[in-house]
Design brief:
2 domains, 13 strands, eight-stranded mixed beta sheet, Rossmann fold, 16 helices
Length: about 450
């Protein structure tokens, strides 16, 4: 059956396909900024929104604040007026397409906090006009687009799929991954009406190598949740295997490296000091919360969460026991240098970083904890870790490192000279096998 397009829909379709449609991207963080730059580099006019005036000032000056998005790329787009930045959400009506890339954190009770999505949707609703396309990219539970956003957008009398268009396309950013940037990752798109779906698919074809249409917005939301649950569960599995194999005096990293030689039926995941970032530690709980509405229980997912959440305790226990065995005084009064504040290597993102939790736990045991991170000069003013706010990274200097009782490798940045680190340190607790990958063999190094 053919689709009957309203005139404003045909006009928007033509503007999208020609690259003339103005793309508004709300949220200039690790998802929104790379997406805005990708659209701009594809020749689409972009209006970048963020309520953080500091980010807008940086963009207007052609300056980056995210390591893997170079200032030169931003400056080129700003200089030819392809990319404009603003903190004024009253200008949302200027965009033909509005893409929402705002945070979706958890509350203190591990329940979804959709405040940023709701407030952004309300701002869009205030200037919503016929023929606009609204797309949510923020990770959330299945049903958010239809149950939360659509009623807000329709409150003024316009109807989704008839007067304006509404879709969901999950972000798939992997900060620091030089192989897969925004423009190299296939895009899943879901909408609850065929016109919205066609428009969203046409939009993303400008910037990605492949678009995958699914049957509804909720299905697309479920795709993203599934991707992140998959990672969380498998990381929990290898974390548990690490504990088991360590008790058996078997090297988990050697096991994984050998197992991944199998060309089928195995995918390598690696243990660590805990989960971090804006997705993997958070998103599974969105599904857990939503599942209760349908009287379903996510036992497997919750168990994985418990295992991953317990890893910092294991690391601190290994650190304390090793110090006790070697110095006879454990952690109390010790000085510990944590290598890496970011949640993963080669990025500056400290959201949900296990390093911050480790520093707090170390100090709760009567020690002092400093950090070194080549990507994080200072810990931001975090709500979750107030005792660590504004601490600065110490210099990577052998004489400085030698003053600490132990060095704890929590984040394995590639730019760190691990041979020099081990030479200078009295003890190294390695949670990432960074020393092993650097072929460093030393009695100073203990894996955790």
């Amino acid at each position: 059956m053919s689709i009957e397009w309203p005139a404003h829909g045909l006009k928007l379709q033509a503007r999208i396909e020609s690259g003339a449609a103005t793309i508004g991207v709300v949220g200039m963080g690790y998802v929104g900024l790379p997406l805005a730059v990708a659209f701009g580099e594809a020749g689409c006019p972009v209006l970048a929104f963020d309520i953080d005036r500091g980010k807008i000032d940086a963009l207007e000056a052609g300056r980056t604040y995210i390591d893997h998005v170079e200032s030169s790329r931003i400056a080129a787009l700003v200089n030819d007026a392809t990319l404009r930045a603003t903190a004024d959400l009253g200008r949302l009506g200027e965009a033909d397409v509005v893409v929402i890339c705002v945070p979706t954190p958890l509350s203190r009770h591990l329940e979804p906090d959709l405040a940023y999505v709701v407030e952004t949707t309300r701002a869009i609703a205030r200037s919503l006009r016929r023929g606009q396309l609204v797309i949510l990219e923020s990770t959330t539970y299945p049903g958010t687009t239809r149950e939360v956003m659509q009623p807000i957008l329709e409150a003024g009398g316009l109807r989704a799929g008839r007067d304006f268009y509404l879709a969901y396309s999950p972000e798939r950013e992997d900060p620091g991954n030089v192989t897969y940037s925004t423009a190299k990752i296939p895009k899943v798109v879901g909408a609850d009406d065929p016109l919205s779906a066609d428009l969203a698919l046409a939009l993303y074809r400008h910037v990605v190598p492949q678009t995958i249409a699914v049957s509804s917005a909720a299905t697309a939301e479920a795709v993203k949740i599934t991707e992140n649950v998959f990672r969380a569960v498998n990381i929990a599995l290898v974390n548990e295997l690490k504990l088991i194999f360590t008790a058996m005096d078997i090297d988990i990293w050697e096991v994984i490296d050998a197992a991944k030689s199998k060309p089928f039926g195995f995918m390598p995941f690696y243990p660590g000091p805990g989960l971090g970032g804006h997705c993997i530690p958070i998103d599974p709980f969105y599904l857990t919360w939503k599942a209760r509405e349908f009287n379903q229980h996510t036992r497997f997912i919750e168990l994985a969460g418990q295992i991953n959440a317990a890893m910092p305790e294991h690391v601190v226990r290994v650190l304390a026991d090793t110090l006790d065995a070697r110095t006879g005084r454990g952690l109390r009064g010790a000085r510990v240098l944590v290598m890496g504040a970011a949640y993963k290597k080669n990025v500056a993102d400290i959201r949900e970083s296990p390093s911050l939790r480790l520093m707090e736990m170390i100090e709760a045991r009567g020690a002092t904890a400093d950090f070194h991170d080549p990507h994080v000069p200072e810990i931001d003013n975090t709500r979750e870790h107030p005792t660590l706010n504004f601490r600065k990274s110490v210099s990577f200097d052998p004489s400085v490192i030698a003053e600490y009782d132990a060095v704890l490798i929590s984040t394995d940045h590639d730019s760190v000279d691990y041979a020099a680190l081990v030479d200078a340190a009295s003890l190294v607790i390695d949670t990432r096998n960074a020393c092993g990958r650097a072929s460093i063999v030393s009695e100073k190094v203990v894996r955790a």
